[in-house]
Amino acid sequence: MPETITEPGLLDLSRYIRSGDTVVWGQACGEPQTLTETLLAQRASIGPFRCFLGIPAARTVRPEHGDHVRFVSYCGSGGNKKLYADGVLDVVPSHYSTLPHLLAGGSLRADVVLIQVAPAGADGRHSLGLADDYVSAAIPGARVVIAEVNDQVPRTPGDWMPRTADFDVVVHTSRAPAEMPPRAITAQTQRIAEHVAGLIDDGATLQFGIGALPEAVLSQLTDRTDLGVHSGLLNDTAAELMAAGVITNARKSVDRGRSVAGLLMGTRRLFRFADGNPAIQLRGTRYTHDPSVLAAQDRLVAVNSAVEVDLTGQVNAEVAGGQYVGAVGGAVDFLRGASRSHGGKPIVALPAMSGGTSKIVARLSGPVSTARCDAGFIVTEYGVADLRGQPLKVRRERMLAVAHPEQRPVLEAAIDNAGVPV
């Protein structure tokens, strides 16, 4: 049986974590905050070690922690942007589908995993509660697994329901999980969402990312019937659509009757709705981003965002203004899955203009996160550009039509001057 600690203040992580180790924990609302706070407070006594970060919900990690810790992540989202700008975070550009391999035995192999779970049920099994995602893949190869058993974590059905004996150390806590409230929706975001919603039919299965735009798209779907969810995350608005009977998953070709996601990313409203709800299932990244699973899901609509898109459909989702702010992430996994899905629709949505800068560009200012061969629908507040199977000339025409009107002459001039990729 594992060592059990009932007083978190007595936890000495230097007993379990060695200098040079790689430590991995659940991201976003799934962060075991008592464990991560203790880890960073005790970092000097442990010695130099590495932490793999996901998207932060709590502001646990700060730049000053870089004195003894080397941070690495797949993304520059949220608080990671500050860490990257201050030079204490490095980024591994990676498709989300490859993270389990990297964490299980690749270059990011986890030595120690910190995990947050709900108390064991009558069957003796714990629920991962808020995040399965990539963290469960890191556990089998880890030397030490430390579990924060938090009685405020919802009990959600999952792919992996561990027993207490599966952990090396158990720390009992009672604290509210980190939350990620919905972001404010602007008029511009609302117009983009309306165009995206026009592409979503009854019976479609949805994948959506993080931020105000996915929330806005979901809020436009209250008149649809029998929608489904197969996504990296489940948010508050999706839960509201489930409660309203809009998302039923009744017409899914895979996992019928259940919303499948890697993690819950929202507020207490979502957590309460998911607690004990058999219509929600958390699965690991190996499943949620599996290309064969995605291709088998009929009418899969993948909705992803971008920093900028060029006139041929190349997408930069990582870098803005020279700063790492996004990720390669799961966009390519889901866009390709939607392309292979019967009746599927791969969508990239973004504002045509933001902060006085055109987001439809002649040449990307950052890396190519999604190749133009994977481009499907590009959506802005000015409409929809369907690039599927289209030659370069047609792509440029359609992209010009969804660019900001003030920017179209500039972009046309770039075409005339051969200033666009061929």
Walk me through the structure:
By secondary structure, the protein is of the alpha/beta class. It folds into two domains: 3-173, Glutaconate Coenzyme A-transferase; 187-416, Glutaconate Coenzyme A-transferase (3-Layer(aba) Sandwich). The protein contains 14 helices and 23 strands. The strands form five sheets. The chain has an eight-stranded parallel beta sheet. The radius of gyration is 22 Å and the shape is globular. The N and C termini lie far apart (62 Å).
Short description:
With 422 residues, this protein is α/β, with parallel strands linked by helices.
Number of domains: 2
Name of the level-1 CATH class of the largest domain: Alpha Beta
Outline the biggest β-sheet: 8 strands, parallel
User: Radius of gyration from the CA trace?
Assistant: 22 Å
Features:
422 residues; alpha/beta; Glutaconate Coenzyme A-transferase; 2 domains; eight-stranded mixed beta sheet; hydrolase; acetate CoA-transferase activity; ActCoA_hydro_N
Write the layout of secondary structure elements.
Elements: E1 3-5, E2 22-25, H1 33-41, H2 43-46, E3 49-53, E4 69-73, H3 80-85, E5 89-91, H4 99-104, E6 112-117, H5 135-138, E7 144-150, E8 169-173, H6 187-197, E9 205-208, H7 212-219, E10 228-234, H8 236-243, E11 259-264, H9 268-274, E12 280-282, H10 285-288, H11 291-296, E13 300-305, E14 308-310, E15 315-316, E16 319-320, E17 323-324, H12 331-340, E18 345-349, E19 353-354, E20 357-358, E21 360-361, E22 377-380, E23 383-386, H13 392-402, H14 408-416
Parallel strand pairs: 1-8, 2-3, 2-6, 3-4, 4-5, 6-7, 7-8, 9-10, 9-13, 10-11, 11-12, 13-18, 14-21, 18-22
Antiparallel strand pairs: 14-15, 16-17, 19-20, 22-23
Helix pairs in contact: 6-7, 8-9
GO biological process, one term: acetate metabolic process
Domain Acetyl-CoA hydrolase/transferase C-terminal: 266-413
Domain Acetyl-CoA hydrolase/transferase N-terminal: 15-160
